[in-house]
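Submission checklist for the structure archive. All mandatory fields must be present; incomplete records are returned to the submitter.

[x] Identifier: MFS transporter
[x] Organism: Bradyrhizobium commune
[x] Residue count: 431
[x] Sequence attached
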Amino acid sequence: MSGAEHVEPFNVKRAALAATVGNMLEFYDFITYSFFAIQIGHTFFPTGSEYGSLMLSLATFGAGFVTRPIGGVVLGIYSDRIGRRPAMLLSFALMGAAILTISLTPSYNAIGIAAPIIVIAARMAQGFALGGEVGPTTAYLIEIAPPEHRALVVAWQPASQEIAATAGALVGVILSKTMAPEMLDSYGWRVAFLLGAVCMPFGLWMRRTLPETIPQGEAAAPAEYRTNHLSQARRHIGLIALALMILASGTISTYVTQYMTTYAQNTLHVSSTLAFAVSLVSNGIQFVGALFGGWLADRLGRKPVMIWPQLITLLLTYPAFLWIVHAPGALSLLVGFGVLSAIGSLPFTAFYATFTEALPQNIRGGVFATVYAVAIASFGGTAQLVVTWLLHVTGDPLAPAWYLLLAAIVGLVAMSLMPETAPMKKHPGKS
């Protein structure tokens, strides 16, 4: 069941906009932390070494992933039983409270050990909120979309994440150009966070107007729901395993890409302005790629759009990193990461559509949210720590490439085994 019959046609575009605007604001707040990991480390985790401060800051970034599976289970199941809109409103409100807390927490030098404790707690609240955001939102987009445009509508889920990352990188470019390094360390990163916080009321207002896609009166009693949910989930265990592999591949790629701001500054020793510009360009390209991938998946089918771009990404990753490492500069960084971003963003939109289409509506939000959150927590939360550690122990600036290659191989294998779920299309010239 697509669920589209529960939303009037003239409301579909507005409903998709409201859902993805909220998603974009939540991801802006979550991802912006990684762009300012160095500055946040100086504020809350002062140590005797840059490496130690950065690792503690990235560990706190990772703490936000620990609670994502919990949020995925709780809010995902809540969305299946009660409705998509209440779940999306709750996750959004929690994210708003957490981001304000991080933005306004005094530094370690001002309040001591309480500062990192408060920030870690707020990151964990953010993780819970975001864990329950993706599943209900993706399910909602599938349910409001007409069958012939499902992949394109669902593409706004990853596309909104790229808008968020692009906005975060743009803010970073502007702040790094207009502020001295000590000002960026002191309060510049707080400005970036507060810009997201001030948009929260708009997102809440938009989401309050969303039409619901879960039919009223169809919610099962708790015990009955748990039984049905588990039994149906077991029947889809193979699909879930493949989804975990693909999401692991995708999240490693995503969070290593977000780490390139820090990598460019710490490892390649380029200016912070160029480092933020690289993230701005790569995320902007991934936004276009996500939508283009959805458009292609509606016309060519889901599997071709998953498999072929993933294979090309696998073949290009190492040569791109070789160029970047041996000739670090604006041309190699912008073109190298730009090409990888453009091609690598195509497969995962098709995957989002495939996985949500393959799940029954009454378990769609909970299963998608849980699988997504587990994969992100296991691999997204550790990706930047692993890359930083690999760079430190090997001294090899190509270490991120090896990690990306391993992830790409796992993703390609799983994508080749996924079912084709695209509705049958009429071909030109045929009736």
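[x] Structure attached
Curator remark: The radius of gyration is 21 Å. The chain has one domain: 4-210+222-417.
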